[in-house]
């Protein structure tokens, strides 16, 4: 068998070919190696600020100068054109869409005005303009709305922050939700900036510093997207009611044990529990959380720009980015996945509307019973049942995306709500009959927001005028004060 050197000796051209091929391979390997080194260098500096960011820096644009890719996508939360079948980030008057909400929240500010939450960059604008802040509110209401909150909490102290009035801190709270809410300015690591979550973990014997990075990709969201209440008549201390667990029953038992009441219903006189937005709690009972999927995995999927892979900070429904949010794991086509989502949401919505309709009747029937001489003893069990039924309905209805996050748990909770409402109506039928009231009670036409608010005697024109005067007189003062303060920070 001829050796290579013999072949080369006989055919010199072969030697040149081998030399050139070897040279090309060495060149390509070198190029590949250089590319790896370059990408590693880019990754090393991708999450390092080009210039130092101060502690408690609230201005998102300052962070954006250092992280332009993330900032460019985060600014897209200003967009209000995207709508899904049941949500999205468009401006939607939820009382107009679901008029029964007016009756269910009678006696609470939500019955005056409740719009779907828009993108995070609208947080300050929306809380300033809602009719709900047309009446005195505690400063605690600012807690989840702004990157200024950690700064002001640090300056005032957490307890004094909560005790202040909402209007009193308007000149301090001006930057919407953003970078400083979730990231440490030095390391850029995910961090918890709101004490309520840390305190809730501590009361359960847990140290939030022990959680994994993957868990933090949901817990930074759980700082705000949770059920909470304001503890103390004067303190208004933001508290997560998780001491006995995060199920709807465990939180209900916690509230019942301390006698907590969010508002007394205007019609039925029931001491009502108003669910806030238990998004994180309900999501923990869904298949995605069970598989270790986090909020960020779906609502902030990875995006590539050139050779750089980074997190899309638009923070929007996964329906907008099915290819990067869903198809990373699921191999079905987009239409099939969209159908899977809406099938679950449709079924939960049907149960939600059934629960709402029965609860509305229970409240009106209870009012009729009171108006016709029913006693406290006769109504005690009725009010407990209505309280627990409405809590269960609201726990699902107030949670963003619950019908997809945990549809089976939602169905279980709503089934329990319907059962308790019907039990209440059964007792009410006996009470009404005893007081010579014809059953069933006639239910008024509540088919629109305007009709429902008129039934409650709301003067919506006056409410709107009062709010408009407040916005016109107070907001400019807040903005001038904030502008002067931020000039000082820049200097």
> Tally the helices: what do you get?
22
| Whole-angstrom Rg | 29 Å
- Give the beta-strand count: 6
Strand content: under 5%
Order of helices and strands: HHHHHHHHHHHEEHEEHHHEEHHHHHHH
In percent, how helical is the residue content? 40-55%
- Which structural category do the helix and sheet elements fall into? mainly alpha
Mean pLDDT: 92
Characterize the overall form. globular
- Main sheet properties: 2 strands, antiparallel
Instruction: Report low-confidence residues grouped into runs of 5 or more.
Output: 35-45
Q: Going across the major beta sheet, what is the strand order?
A: 1-2
What is the distance, rounded to the nearest whole angstrom, between the alpha carbons of the first and last residues? Answer: 82 Å
């Amino acid at each position: 068998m001829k050796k290579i050197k013999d072949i080369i000796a006989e055919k010199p051209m072969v030697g040149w070919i081998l030399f050139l091929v070897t040279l090309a391979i060495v060149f390509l390997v070198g190029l590949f190696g250089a590319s790896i080194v370059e990408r590693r260098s880019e990754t090393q500096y991708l999450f390092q600020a080009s210039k130092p960011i101060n502690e408690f820096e609230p201005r998102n644009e300052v962070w954006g100068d250092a992280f332009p890719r993330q900032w460019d996508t985060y600014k897209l939360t200003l967009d209000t054109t995207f709508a899904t079948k049941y949500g999205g980030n468009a401006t939607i008057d939820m009382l107009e869409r679901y008029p029964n909400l007016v009756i269910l929240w009678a006696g609470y500010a939500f019955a005056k005005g409740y719009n779907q939450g828009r993108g995070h960059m609208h947080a300050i604008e929306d809380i300033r303009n809602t009719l709900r802040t047309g009446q005195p509110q505690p400063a605690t209401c600012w807690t989840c709305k702004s990157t200024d909150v950690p700064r002001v909490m640090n300056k005032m102290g957490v307890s004094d922050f909560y005790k202040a009035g909402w209007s009193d801190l308007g000149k301090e709270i001006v930057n919407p939700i953003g970078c400083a809410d979730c990231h440490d300015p030095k390391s850029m690591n995910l961090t918890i900036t709101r004490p309520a979550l840390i305190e809730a973990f501590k009361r359960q014997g847990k140290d939030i510093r022990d959680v994994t990075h993957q868990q933090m990709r949901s817990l930074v969201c759980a700082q705000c997207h949770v059920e909470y209440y304001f503890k103390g008549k004067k303190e208004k201390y933001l508290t997560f009611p998780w001491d006995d667990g995060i199920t709807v029953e465990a939180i209900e038992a916690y509230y019942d044990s301390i006698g907590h009441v969010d508002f007394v219903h205007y019609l039925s006189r029931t001491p009502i529990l108003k669910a806030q937005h238990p998004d994180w709690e309900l999501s923990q009972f869904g298949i995605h959380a069970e598989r270790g999927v986090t909020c960020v995995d779906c609502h902030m999927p990875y995006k590539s720009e050139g050779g750089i892979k980074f997190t899309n900070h638009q923070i929007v429904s996964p329906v907008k980015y099915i290819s990067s949010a869903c198809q990373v794991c699921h191999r079905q086509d987009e239409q099939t996945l969209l159908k899977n989502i809406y099938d679950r949401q449709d079924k939960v919505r049907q149960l939600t509307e059934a629960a709402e309709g029965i609860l509305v009747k229970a409240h009106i029937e209870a009012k009729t019973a009171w108006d016709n001489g029913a006693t406290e003893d006769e109504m005690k069990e009725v009010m407990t049942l209505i309280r627990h039924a409405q809590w269960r309905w609201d726990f699902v209805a107030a949670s963003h995306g619950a019908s997809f996050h945990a549809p089976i748990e939602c169905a279980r909770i709503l089934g329990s709500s319907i059962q308790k409402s019907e039990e209440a109506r059964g007792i009410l039928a006996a009470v009404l009959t005893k007081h010579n009231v014809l059953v069933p009670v006639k239910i008024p036409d509540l088919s629109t927001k305007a009709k429902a608010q008129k039934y409650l005697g709301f003067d919506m024109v006056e409410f709107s005028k009062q709010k408009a005067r407040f916005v016109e007189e107070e907001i400019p003062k807040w903005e001038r004060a904030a502008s002067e303060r931020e000039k000082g920070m820049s200097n």
